[in-house]
Write a structure and sequence with these properties.
Blueprint lengths: L11 E9 L4 H9 L5 E8 L4 E9 L4 H10 L3 E3 L4 H6 L4
Antiparallel strand pairs: 1-3, 1-4, 2-3
Helix pairs in contact: 1-2
């Protein structure tokens, strides 16, 4: 991953997705979200399976703000912002 600390503290929610391995899956994801959300983190890992693991962060204060868009996407996902690994390695605390 590249980047670094943002110039200001952001309200971030991080999700784990199972992206299908087919052409257009990422474009579908980006088109559905539109220009509403700032993506703060995007990490993709393929294990040669039918799906790839994605860790994605968004600059939002509340899960409810984005939930309807993620549900419409149809890719399995879960909110991981409360995960102990996230709190240890990815927060600015």
């Amino acid at each position: 991953m590249i980047g670094g600390m943002p110039p200001r503290l952001v309200q971030e929610q991080v999700y784990q997705f199972n992206f299908p391995e087919y052409p257009g899956a990422l474009m579908n994801f980006l088109n559905l979200l539109g220009e509403t959300y700032n993506i703060t983190l995007f990490h993709y890992r393929n294990h040669g399976a039918a799906t790839g693991d994605v860790l994605a962060g968004f600059e939002i204060a509340d899960h409810a703000d984005i939930a309807q868009h993620l549900d419409a996407l149809g890719y399995p996902y879960q909110l991981v912002s409360g995960n102990s690994s996230y709190k240890t390695f990815l927060t600015a605390g």
